[in-house]
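Re: that backbone. Tokens:
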């Protein structure tokens, strides 16, 4: 049975893409988590699955050859519909999955335990899942351990996103390093092409900064002094 799309699908996909993780190379740190998941649940297969618009792509996979599968036959597409884990003891007994090609053909899934990967803003972008070719169950301790591992996956993804943003910010800072040629009278800045631009325009072109305007206390005091009646009379 094909899973419906979440009500926040647009937000969810935007959150997923913000991590810039899709189609990246394998990384040991994610592979280690997949191995731990398989060990905890005593299963031959485990994956870190990210649910894209029309596919589920595996950042890490153990015991599975495919790098991705269509979303319409994905177990994980069902998992992301709720914040709690999806445990399927026997897929052949579950009407949602009994006729899935992932059950009737390779890899012949019978047991599935999926744990949502939820971003800080509440978007479920994928799952950490454990899979077996025979029916089974997991105990509360195994479930809690898997939930902890899923949180670790999200911590790694958040670290990746923050690091990318910091790298981008540093690149912008580099454009402002060194001496900036500034007019001593009008305070305009000369850019690399020799054009003189206002400070605001220069910074907006070279950073992500936005500007609001106000009056500092010193200038406010000078303005009040200039407009004071006593000062005008003395003049």
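Recovered sequence:
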């Amino acid at each position: 049975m094909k899973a419906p799309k979440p009500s926040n699908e647009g937000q969810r996909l935007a959150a997923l893409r913000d991590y810039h993780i899709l189609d990246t190379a394998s990384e040991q740190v994610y592979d280690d988590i997949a191995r731990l998941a398989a060990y905890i649940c005593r299963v031959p297969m485990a994956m870190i699955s990210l649910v894209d618009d029309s596919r589920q792509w595996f950042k890490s996979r153990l015991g599975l050859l495919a790098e991705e599968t269509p979303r319409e036959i994905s177990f994980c597409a069902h998992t992301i519909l709720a914040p709690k884990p999806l445990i399927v003891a026997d897929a052949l007994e579950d009407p949602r999955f009994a006729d899935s090609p992932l059950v009737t053909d390779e890899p012949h899934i019978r047991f599935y335990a999926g744990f949502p990967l939820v971003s800080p803003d509440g978007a479920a972008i994928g799952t950490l899942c454990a899979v077996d070719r025979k029916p089974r169950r997991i105990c509360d301790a195994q479930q809690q351990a898997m939930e902890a591992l899923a949180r670790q996956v999200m911590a790694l993804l958040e670290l990746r996103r923050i690091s990318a943003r910091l790298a981008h910010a540093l690149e912008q800072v580099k454009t402002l390093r060194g001496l900036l040629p500034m007019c001593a009278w009008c305070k305009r800045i000369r850019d690399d092409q020799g054009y003189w631009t206002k400070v605001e325009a220069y910074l907006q072109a070279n950073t992500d900064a936005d500007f609001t305007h106000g009056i500092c206390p010193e200038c406010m005091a000078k303005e009040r002094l200039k407009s004071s009646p006593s000062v005008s009379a003395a003049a």
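The domain at 9-163 is CATH 3.30.450.40 (Beta-Lactamase). The chain has two domains: 9-163, 176-234.
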